[in-house]
Structures are given as structure tokens and as C-alpha cells.
Design a protein that fits this description.
The chain is mainly alpha-helical. Helices cover 77% and strands 0% of the residues. 31% of the residues are buried.
Length: 198
């Protein structure tokens, strides 16, 4: 990135700026939908600068996915915490937040699943697996607090609803996808909690 006269180089800020700008471009266009030269032009850096900070385009992709996973997981953890102690309210809040995301004009589906589908390489698949594991931990925690007989099973079922709603919203019709999944999730939660009380 050009450095204004009299300024000093700040490698961390340069890296963060590249990452932020590239994240939006790669999410919009897809990992394989843009070459390095065009990506550098859109980001406003030379190839040398990009490679200095990330090694390769794949290095940038891995950094982008890792940062995005952190951001999304923290966002949903915050949504759950803000919903109070009732597991039903926590679960509702997750799907309400997802619906807001689906309604965003820049929504293009789950960046992790998109990346894993486009890039069949182990580092991307590993990042995606860790991301889904973090979702599973969040949802299993809600299931545990609800007293589900098998919290891990319910957590997996809820994860399937989250990712299924995200795929439907991205590829069919986003209107109401989060609400429909929320209703199904609350039914599952209620049934699993009743079974846990027996």
C-alpha cells in the first residue's frame, strides 16, 4: 500500500488492511473467481507486498478464513450471551441473527463452506472443520442448558439446521429461511428437553 510521505511503514496495519479488503473481494467473487493480479489491483497492493505478508494466495485465503471464523463465532457467542439464560431465547437469538445476515445484500452464504467446496485442499478443509466444531460447541452448550437427553446429538441436529438454512438462503430464497429453521430448532429443543426430563 502506498505510504504517504513522512509516514513510517507499519507492517501489521498493512497486513490487516490487505486482509480486510481481500476478505470482501474473495467473499463476493469466490476464491477461484479472481486471479492474483486482479485481486492485488482491487486491494491496492503489489504482488510482492501480498506475497511478503501471506506467502501465496492460498496463504491469504487461509488467513482470511481463520479471521472470518473468529469474527463469526464471536458474533454468535455474543448473540447467545445477550439473550439471557433461557436456552429457548438463546436458540431463537441465533436464528434471528442469522436471518439478519441472510437479509444483507452482500450475503453469499457461509464463507467456510463456500471455500471448502471451491478449494479441495487440506488447510481449507481443516479451517472449515474447526469452524463447524465451534458452531457445534455453541449449539451443544444450548442443548446442555436446556437439559437435552443427548446434548451432542441435538447440537449436531441444530448445526444441520443452521447450515441448511444458510445454504437455502444463499441458493434459493433467503426470505424467512432463518425463521423457518428457528421454528424447527425450537421444536427439536422442546422435544429433546422433554425426553431429558423423563
Amino acid at each position: 500500500m502506498p505510504v504517504p510521505k513522512g509516514s513510517t511503514l507499519d507492517p501489521e496495519r498493512t497486513r490487516a488492511t490487505i486482509l480486510q479488503t481481500a476478505t470482501a473481494v474473495l467473499y463476493e467473487r469466490g476464491l477461484d473467481g479472481i486471479g492474483v493480479a486482479e485481486l492485488c489491483a482491487r486491494v491496492g497492493v503489489s504482488k510482492e507486498t501480498l506475497y511478503r505478508h501471506f506467502g501465496t494466495k492460498d496463504g491469504l485465503v487461509e488467513a482470511m478464513l481463520t479471521a472470518r471464523s473468529e469474527r463469526v463465532t464471536s458474533w454468535l457467542e455474543g448473540v447467545v450471551a445477550a439473550a439471557g439464560d433461557d436456552p429457548c431465547h438463546q436458540l431463537s437469538a441465533v436464528f434471528d441473527a442469522l436471518q439478519q445476515w441472510y437479509d444483507d445484500p452482500v450475503f453469499r452464504g457461509c464463507a467456510m463452506l463456500n471455500a471448502a467446496a471451491q478449494h479441495h485442499v487440506e488447510p481449507v478443509r481443516a479451517i472449515t472443520a474447526r469452524h463447524l466444531d465451534r458452531y457445534l460447541d455453541l449449539l451443544t452448550g444450548i442443548a446442555e442448558r436446556a437439559g437435552a437427553a443427548d446434548p451432542h446429538l441435538l447440537g449436531r441436529q441444530l448445526l444441520m439446521l443452521v447450515e441448511g438454512a444458510t445454504v437455502v438462503a444463499a441458493h434459493q430464497d433467503g426470505a424467512g429461511a432463518g425463521e423457518h429453521a428457528r421454528q424447527a430448532a425450537l421444536t427439536l429443543l422442546s422435544t429433546a428437553s422433554e425426553a431429558g426430563d423423563r
